[in-house]
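Take a sample.
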Amino acid sequence: MNKNINKISIKDLYCYYKSFLAIENVNINVPKNKITAFIGPSGCGKSTVLRSINRMNDLVLGSKINGEISINFNNEICNVYESKVDVTQLRKRVGMVFQKPNPFKMSIYDNVAYGPRLFGFKRKQELNETVEKSLRNAALWNEVKDKLHKSSAFELSGGQQQRLCIARALAVNPEILLMDEPCSSLDPLATVKIEDLLIQLKEELTVVIVTHNMQQASRISDMTAVFWVKEENKAGELIEYKSTVDIFSRPQDPRTEGYITGRFG
């Protein structure tokens, strides 16, 4: 597997919410089978860029995108914002996990089986295998295997619910997993389980994560993009993007150094 090719290419990206310019001129190439972290102070556009990748921003009234986001799907380049793109299929291949766990009000099994059923999986054996594989990949199987149909997803702990949401995303075999501060509401032990899981998942997936946790970014990511808020128009901008080792040991922009050391931001 060639892990040096770009999975996502973002070129000259501008994002608007009605008349407000939220993101200005962002250019990023996200490598395949790596974890890329988006960091920066609140309001700098990290989540806006993340949600643009699978067009979740389409759901925000008045949102508009200029620029280009391309994804390499098995050596076929897909321009995400072309009119012919099937957004449902796009979000199948580019899954997303949100800040707060959002399981469905149904059993553990049905939460994970929801996506496969939506995309045509009907055979019981096929669904059973998919649910087990997804829960194993989310490091949750051993904790829930005896209560798949008995328990509501809401009976799980917060960390378990977040791993269930990851399993639900994995069940439709995505190539990319977008994560918007997935550990912000979790305790340290649950956070460690999620981080260990992401490191394992990058063998099969490309992961992009928004995080305010500098230690988390330095622990798990291969690449780090640093965003900032422009003084003149309050738009978010990308100020630095390179390997995580370089960002944390040899930052070029003084704002990056100030942010990662906690002096400001």
